[in-house]
Amino acid sequence: MVPPTSCCHQLIKRIARQNDRVFDQEMFLLALMCAYISKTLSGSFLNSILTQLERQFNLSTTLVGLINGSFEIGNLLLIVFVSYFGTKMHRPMLIAMGCITMGIGCFLQSLPHFLMDPYEYETTVSKTSNSSSNDFLCMRKETQIFTTTEDPSECTNEVKSSMWLYVLVGNIIRGIGETSIKPLGISYIEDFAKTENSPLYIGCLETGAIIGPLIGFLLGSYCVKMYVDIGSVNTDDLTITPADTRWVGAWWLGLLVCAGVNVLSGVPFLFLPKSLPKVGLETNMNIIEKDERNETKAEKRDITIDFLPLMKSLFCNRIYVLFLVTSILQFNAFVILFSFLPKYMEQQYGISASEAIFLIGIYNLTPVCFGYLAGGFIMKKFKINMKQAAYIAFCMSLLDYFLNMLCFLTVCDNSPVAGLTVSYEGYNVNMESNVLTDCNIDCNCQDKIWDPVCGNNNLSYMSACLAGCEAYFGTGVNMGFQNCSCIKSSKNASASLGLCGSTPACSLMLQYFLILSALSSFIYSLAAIPGYMVFLRSLKPKEKALGVGLHMLCTRIFAGIPAPIYFGVLVDYTCLHWGTLRCGKPGACRIYDSINFRTMYLGLSAILRGVSYVPALLIVFILRKQFLPAESNTTVMEMVVKRQENEEKEINKQSVYLIENDIQTKF
């Protein structure tokens, strides 16, 4: 018989220990949610500035896609190692190291701004208010013909081909750091969370993964409004506005913010324990700690003995394999839609990059946040089982798919640019573009320079010279042009800097597109949590960490890396006019064929998602015919606890009963 005094001391000690465990659980959930916010903040911010990087470094969309996919390359380097071996190490410490590594990667990405000369955009118009040069006008009496510089050293300095590699390497490092957060964080939660609470916890984490992009896109919208070299150049002398396709915003500023946030998010994990007990089993601390010590010793003897059996078990799991195929196809479509959405909205609806990024944050990400919360709440409230979750996920995702098809109706025509998309008379052209015509052929114009002006006939021209303008007035963005021979108008033939704005009909189409995007985002996110729980519940407890890691590995190899690259190649084929550097080499694309761009952007993603419903439907059929016993989240730890409880009941039955009863009364 154990003395009462000894029991009281044990009781107090166990109550204090349980209080610490509860605090650690809450601390871990909060810290992991902050880590989700920080990692998705930096990822979404980079997605929002891809067009800025394209213009800053004069890259093709293919290379920009490579930069975007380099994050997944970093993931591949460590994902399997971290997912499998990380569960046997100090998981919170590994997550902290990952957050700090992501911060270092973001800082490295911002370095080119501090190593490069100020940004110089393509223009013939003088950028200084005190210049008297007017060689950007139609000079009919001049015999000089403009030629491009062919000095190799000038070409090298202008292209700055090596600077974008900093962004590429920084993104790889950021991908390496992100590797540990999701698989180790989810496996840590699954270890201590009750079965009915797990969907709500994961829903909270996924909500954090949406709050991050929301903040990231708003930060991107704010930074893109500011000129890249703000503080070092006089913005009053600029001849471009944020709506111009040559504008580059302060992309580097947001990356510095992301670096700081990532480092700070890793600090709380440094103070968390290696593991936590299952909720409801805290009364057996001695048993759990003893078993943890025994497991650690066994793992050190042979840490890889069960790797191949686990891999075999995963690939023999029909539901897991079909879910993997579905995820790869869906993720291909998602990467295309999400990565190129700002560029699509800019080219399709004629809005600025800053406005496009802001609208994405408001109309796309806010509904997703509510959808994740609602999905997690429904799973917990109605105690949805695996079959029901599969039905919900499939039906909601299919509804979202058909809703997305309506986006094909929200169309705008190509921006009318004389010599590119329409003739100088304003008619559509179906032949090779020809920017030289009778009204400007004797003006000695540079026919490849992109310095657009908008005529008072609502037709854009590639430059004031190609519009046949012979005089100008004003400075900076307020500069205007007169006596333009190519502009056919009942009024005085004049023009102003920049492309002509979109029509009211196109603005209305933008509103329809945003409404469809908001509804689609909410419905898709509502199906995400049930679908993910089908994935998790199809795995045995020992398979979860490796299963999640392998899922991330495959989606990155077959979707995250190739999708932005191959779609970037397709986008480059729709370019109507490439920018021209001083040395004559092509720069970034200035204008795309919006019809072909729309067909590729919406059509390819629709095909990929449509094919993905074949394996998804097979999952539903398999679960429909399969008998599923009452779902349990019992882990190996729980079984060990139960076994050792039976052994110790005979030794100290009264003491254990007293302690457990007192703790249950207390809490």
TrEMBL record:
GO terms for molecular function: bile acid transmembrane transporter activity; sodium-independent organic anion transmembrane transporter activity. The keyword Secreted does not apply. InterPro entries: Kazal_dom, Kazal_dom_sf, MFS_dom, MFS_trans_sf, OATP. The chain crosses the membrane at residues 27-46, 66-86, 93-111, 250-272, 319-341, 356-378, 390-411, 512-536, 548-569, 600-623. It is found in: Cell membrane. It is a multi-pass membrane protein. Keywords: Cell membrane, Disulfide bond, Glycoprotein, Ion transport, Membrane, Transmembrane, Transmembrane helix, Transport. Residues 28-628 form the Major facilitator superfamily (MFS) profile domain. It comes from the Eukaryota. GO terms for cellular component: basolateral plasma membrane. Pfam families: Kazal_2, OATP. One of its GO terms (biological process) is monoatomic ion transport. Residues 433-488 form the Kazal-like domain. NCBIfam families: oat. Belongs to the organo anion transporter (TC 2.A.60) family. This is Solute carrier organic anion transporter family member. It comes from Vombatus ursinus (Common wombat).
